[in-house]
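Hi support team,

I submitted a single chain yesterday and got back a structure, but I'm not sure I'm reading the token output correctly. Could someone confirm the output below corresponds to the sequence I sent? I've pasted both exactly as they appear in my results page.

Thanks,
R.
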Amino acid sequence: MAKKQIQQTQQPQQQVQQKSTGTGRTEVFSFRSPKAAKVQLVGDFTQWQERPINLQKESDGTWKATVILSPGTHQYKFVVDGNWCDDPDCKQRSPNPFGGENMMRRVA
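Hi R., thanks for writing in. Yes, this is the structure output for that exact sequence:
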């Protein structure tokens, strides 16, 4: 399974950022929702709802989290105020068993 680590980021807005580390790659996930009270990232690397990652809200209403992911393809979704949401900027998707789609992030 993928390891995770959360760090607050102060980098300019960019949907996907990657940086190599010894154990994986640093990936930035972001979701714009100025009115949300809470945004979480869930996926195969968090055991879905078992260990959600809380995103940090920035002044412009964009929520961000930096996560270290192992190489491979990872599936994920956002949970915004308790509602499962797709990443509108993610083009790679895979059907899930609930009739929707999971977002996919490939890590080299």
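A quick pointer for reading it: The CA atoms of residues 19 and 79 lie 25 Å apart. Let us know if anything else looks off.

Best,
Support desk
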